[in-house]
Amino acid sequence: MSVELLAAVAVLPILVALILMVGMRWPATKAMPLAWLVCAVSAIVVWGLTPGYVLSLTLQGFVTAIGVLIIVFGAILILFTLEKSGGMETIQYGMQNISRDKRVQAIIIGYMFAAFIEGAAGFGTPAALAAPLLLALGFPAMAAAIVCLVFNSFPVTFGAVGTPVVVGLSPLKSILEADIANGGMTYAAFCKVVGENATLMHLPMIFILPVLMLGFLTRYYGPTRTWSEGFAAWKYCMFAAVCFTIPYMIVAWTLGPELPSLVGALIGLGVLVYGTKKGFCVPEKTWDFEHHEKWDPSWTGSIAATGKTEFHPHMSQVRAWMPYALIGAILVITRIPELGLKAWLSSFKIGFTDILGYQGVSASIDYLFLPGTIPFTLVAIITILLHGMNANAVKEAWTTTFAKMKAPTIALLAAVALVSIFRGSGVNPDGMPSMPLALAQTVAEFTGSAWPALASYVGGLGAFITGSNTVSDLLFSEFQWNMATNLELPRQIIVAAQAVGGAMGNMVCIHNVVAACAVVGLSGREGMIIRTTFWPFLLYGVVVGIVATILI
User: What is the pTM of this model?
Assistant: First the structure.
């Protein structure tokens, strides 16, 4: 069967998911199981996989999904623990003292704080942590989820202490090492050069996104429904972008791909908050949403808005923010390999090798290394003592969290099982390319010399399918290398476009959308969010394509 026909079949599960969720507004709890079924049948009928092998891949996906669900559980638990302890209202009071302007709060929390969490942990953690915080500050749930998903893009290439580059590009390691004798680069040097080019591709959107998303916020969720109120805060957006970009670029071009997002956001957050308190570039007129009773019902979900406009402290700001400070500190010390804790925590795992007897179909849960366990759940437990919570408050926080897990569990089990079949389809009796590779090869055939302008969308496709920039790079980095070689293009630039594409794909990938919906009580509205985040995703790819073409 030709690659084009394989691609036509491979795209069917994706189309089913999109048509049902985006077009027909089905919840992911119904759409994703059906998409999984289409994928499973395609794998058996077209790729020749045995039903037993498809079942083993499905179980592999279930194990991986449990890891994602642990992160979602921990993020929701933090939210309700702080809500029941009085810490969240204290944070709301403190944020009002920094600025009551919701545009400013969106930048501090959704843009900068989330970038720090991405730099430390990655893997969907930022949206799961920042979106509930914006929700608690008085944002409509839909707005909070969309803003955090879109902002969870530019830091992702260097997220999780550089994992998407350092680990994601590992299929190229043997190719590079074989070429060292002929004057080629080492793998470490190549990763650094890819990172440098990736910063240049991200750079325009680091400045464009905050202005765009504030305009979106005021246009679709503001009292007057105008873009101009969001655009009016453009000076503050530029200030925030500069705060992040300067340390981000310095670290990427001097130290390498592990720490640009982490250091850029950490330094940027400190400077941004200090400047905000001093009124630097802060808009003169304060902007806010209407009272929640006037909101469109589609904006909110199962986690109700408080309706409060004035908040009161129940403790000091230091005590209230301490759980988040602990989360940040623990993420840093457990993610930097040189500190030793990363390897130790990663050694604790529940492993499943050769599932159902099929060689190579394995999965594991690093139950202590997952951020849902350490630090989220650990910090939630510490917060009980830190905030002096009583037994009833603790019980309410935990029971509410478990109740919120039903919908995301169904959706994520099906979605990640689909991903597992997608990736595993490459092991077939006829030597056919895997489903994602067939899609990528077909796209490449129709683009030719225009590849630099479109390469990032393959990375985005990989992230959309797999839910991970790292996995997208693992799937497609060698394919991008070969495309660059065949078209006689600079390989480091095309591979950088892949790494950036995987980052921008985070704003539309089903995993992240389901997780973000879960933590703000919007399970079942995933299609509405993807319909919205698709447009900044498309714009991002256009801008990256222009920069990649210029660099070549």
Answer: 0.79
